[in-house]
Design brief:
This protein has about 200 residues and is of the alpha/beta class. About 45% of the residues lie in helices and about 20% in strands.
């Protein structure tokens, strides 16, 4: 199998995981980035207040998303870009929570995507004082990108996986995870979530 995956990054308007206000995506085929996209999102109602701390991080202000597609309107575009790929994100737990929570807030079903965390991969691949995205990306040879721009972050994340796979001699993300001893997780399907909530 070739090294195929989609890197994803979300920025949020506030402390709610459902408050996605931007997404960036990078598609990798056979170990090369072949496409990238990013766009603003109008967060779901009730999760759409912008906190100054978040604005200070990513620079996105509420007036910039007024005309943007809502989470529900942009969701088909996001899922079409990612397809059936394993999703990769830096601190993937955060990004997968955003995906699930924004879907829950808009009565959509989150895709049962498999995902891999590039922080965990970086910890196994590099010896660094910090595994924050800029430092891990620099170790992969990806320098001087606009951190907290969602598309730039997705591209940086993709480069960490590409470089780590090269170092490990892994031909695909499943092999990479196995060689490094990290886990490819999966977003639970809606039925599984309901069953877990019943306990």
């Amino acid at each position: 199998m070739p090294l195929d995956f989609t890197a994803i990054d979300f920025e949020t308007a506030n402390s709610s995981s459902a408050s996605a206000c931007s997404v960036g995506l990078a598609r990798v085929r056979d170990g090369r980035v072949v496409a990238s996209e990013g766009w603003l999102i109008r967060p779901p109602a009730g999760h759409d207040r912008f906190f100054e701390v978040n604005v200070g991080i990513h620079g996105i202000r509420p007036e910039q998303v007024v005309a943007a597609d809502s989470w529900a309107d942009q969701f088909p575009r996001l899922t079409a870009f990612a397809g059936d790929d394993v999703l990769v994100a830096h601190n993937a737990g955060f990004d997968m929570r955003v995906l699930r929570s924004a879907c829950e807030a808009t009565a959509l079903t989150a895709p049962p995507a498999r995902y891999l965390c590039s922080v965990q991969v970086a910890r196994k691949s590099y010896d660094l004082p910090s595994y924050r995205l800029p430092m891990a990306a620099a170790a992969a040879g990806h320098l001087d990108f606009a951190h907290h721009d969602a598309t730039a972050d997705a591209l940086a994340c993709a480069q960490i996986i590409i470089d780590s796979a090269r170092r490990a001699g892994a031909s695909d993300v499943v092999k990479l995870a196995m060689l490094l001893g990290v886990r490819i997780s999966q977003i639970p399907v809606a039925e599984q979530v309901a069953e877990l909530a019943a306990f």
